[in-house]
Write a structure and sequence with these properties.
Length: 495
Amino acid sequence: MEDAEGQSASLLEKKAGGGRTMYVEGCPGCAVDRRKAANPGIPYGTFIYVWIVTLCTALPISSLFPFLYFMIRDLNVAKRTEDIGFYAGFVGASFMFGRCLTSTAWGIAADRIGRKPVVVFGIFSVVVFNTLFGLSVSYWMAIATRFLLGALNGLLGPIKAYAIEVCRPEHEALALSLVSTAWGIGLIIGPALGGYLAMPAENFPNVFSPDSFFGRFPYFLPCLCTSVFAVVVLISCIWMPETLHKHKGSENENQSIEGLEAHLIDPKENIEEIGSLNTKKSLFKNWPLMSSIIIYCVFSFHDMAYTEVFSLWAESDKKYGGLSFSSEDVGQVLAVTGASLLVYQLFLYPRINKILGPINSSRIAAILCIPILFAYPYMTYLSEPGLSIILNIASVIKNNLSVTIITGTFILQNNAVPQDQRGAANGLSMTGQSFFKAVAPAGAGIVFSWAQKRQHGFFFPGDQMVFFLLNVIELLGFILTFKPFLAVPEQYNRN
């Protein structure tokens, strides 16, 4: 029978040092490590879980944006057309505000009880509260259901840790690329669903009558589709393997998870490491982690503001500087963008990362976004079909560049901490990101509403001001990717 020292040794990172690698029987983390050692190839089966879980958490975040403008109008909360953007921003912000309050706690829970239970609960919350949001009959019901959806949705942090843990080190870039790919596609497919399926009684009168259920709840159908997908993912997670190490009968159990809260609270806490005493670095003292999180937050703020602004700008009337697109038109643009993200992340990004590394690729992507955003307001001078062609090209390039940046920060964050801090680190990252993403829609809505009232201003009139401010944020993120601000894990110091 393996003794306590043997069990502790089995928790160490598996390295081929000439000795016999030891695993603890019945430990899910050891079972995954054993499979990784026996199968050096890409674990396509477990990568599917990474993909569908990430997609499940991304879809409800963005599916409301194409119809949010019309939803706020129908809820009769805005007294003037120009005020719709103001109220829409707070509905968009409520999800991220809820996630901001709970992400670190979900990350710690994932390190204590496992990745799988947190993921399953998060998917269940999507099923319940995303459905209720589609049935909202008042402005405050919409805000409350979005807030609870965010607060109880602890999926993204644990699934990023999970993606690293189910594969060998040489496949980590692909694993995290899958997370950002599914995330990016979810942020595109979600609005596409919202654009095509919202207000079905108006868009498909031969199928849905105004007196039908979907006629009385015009924004329920896209939410229902997302919730049905979440149910399918929830059922499939029955077979999802756990990756957290769990060992009974030893003082050094669960990879010293008892000390996780101490990482966040007491930087001087000494935690007994597996097989030896080792002083763990507080997450707040880990500057490679914290600097990459801050950069991640800046770019996340930009991306969320852009997502909000894009739909509002495209759907607003031309007399306010918009394109007068319908929700279906916006959905079509975003569907094309989503398809391009799938191709880019699966076939192009791994090669780009291999050549340039996560830091240089992020810098190049950030600087290329600036002229693209600068061009958006001038698209109002174009007419069809040129407008749709140019807008689709710009949207495809902009969103692929954004995913390049986010994937690079994912790689840096997850290589800045050991496995037993990875869940908490990703939870902390989600807390910061969620705060910025909560501020972004509200801020973007307020700025957008203000910009529409100054169509004849001297300095960047109308929507030119909105895209100018987005470029300022993008430039700030680009500057932060350089030393002395950005500190990186040792393996990336060459960048």
